[in-house]
Amino acid sequence: MGINLEIYGEYDIKTAENKIRSIKEIEIPAFAKYQPDIENIIRVAEKYKGYSNVIIIGNGGSITSFWAFYKALAEYKSKKNVYIISTMDPDFINYVREKCLPKDTLVVPISKSGNTVGVLEVIFAFEGYPMFSITSEDSGALREITRKRNLEYLTIPKEIGGRYSGRTSCGYFPAVLFDIDIAEIDQGIREICEICTSKNNLEKNLALKLATFLYLMDLKGYSEIFHPVYSPKLEGFTNLMVQLIHESSGKEGKGQTIYGSLGPESQHHTNQRFFGGKKNVVGLFLNVAKLEHQNMKTMAPDDLKDISLKDKNLDILSNIPLAKALEFEFRGTVEDAENKNIPLAIVTLDEVSANNVGQYLAFIQYLAVYSSLLREVNPFDQPQVEDSKEISYELRLQYNK
What we know:
- This protein is α/β, with parallel strands linked by helices and about 400 residues long.
- Helix content is about 45%, strand content about 15%.
- It has helices at about 15-25, 30-35, 40-45, 65-75, 90-100, 115-125, 140-150, 170-175, 180-195, 205-220, 235-250, 270-275, 320-340, 355-375, 385-400; strands spanning about 5-10, 55, 80-85, 105-110, 135, 155, 225-230, 255-260, 280-290, 310, 310-315, 345-350.
- It has a five-stranded mixed sheet, with helices on both faces. It has a five-stranded parallel sheet with strand order 3-2-4-5-6, with helices on both faces.
- Strand 5 (about 135), helix 7 and strand 6 (about 155) form a beta-alpha-beta unit.
- The model has no long low-confidence stretch (mean pLDDT about 95).
């Protein structure tokens, strides 16, 4: 397994033993049972790989998994441009239209219901552009637009909610456009799902172990989670993690608040809150053990070596690998937390690879499921999200009266 978990802080696992036993008996979630048609997704996507710009229109789970895949596996390599539009902001939409000519651009609207009003409004702003839809098979306005315009499309399984849809066409079709190995991602997902669905593999079930730790910390008053991510490649998972935790377990007056930020940048602002604010924050650090350019070193230029740095000079920075410098920043915050008896957990990926990205996706999906079940709430609905959508729709109707 490409994921490692360390926990710092005392917690009594016996407090949750009965709940853990009941969790082991749950039905396998739909996202874990689902078997995507990888070959078909690749075959369809190959026909659209010639576009130099890709505009993806969607909200929430329709876009968060792909964004995580892109940041981790394509951003540093791809020569194509991607624009994620999850807003009706006219300034941003106009900016994207000015950057992307129809002949060079594929527009990909994604909506499971097909009736996400904001998605439809943005589609109309790109009238005349080549388009490929991802939506439900048999209902919704986006499905009807697809039929009427005779567009090619892929479907989203009814049984899988948006935030859990990373291994469906939502995540995989746009990933193929950027030459991301979705078969290897899916292999990683299957490896974690196998562990999490086994009733006899509790020790290896790191998602359940982390969910239990966070739950027990919640019971002790740690109602917030500080989530620094020490890899720009994994920063794309931050929004997905926030969505999974909030939308899955934040119900019936329960659930923790999670806020993430790229480290070590986070040390220059949120460390103040973590260490100096209310003592209700548990740490959840995300790190990578091996970087692609592991041995790249800092070298102070000869004419600058004698410039003062604190009680030394700049030459003391020479010959230190940048990967080590990043590690020192990370360890400084972890050791500070240990010294101050602040509980935290560290999730470490061996390296950023397609397989490990798949493992991590399944890991945080199961983390959200377990976090919900420990609090005895439904991991798969989102009633308050739906309520606000209805209010927004009614306001549009009133405006057009």
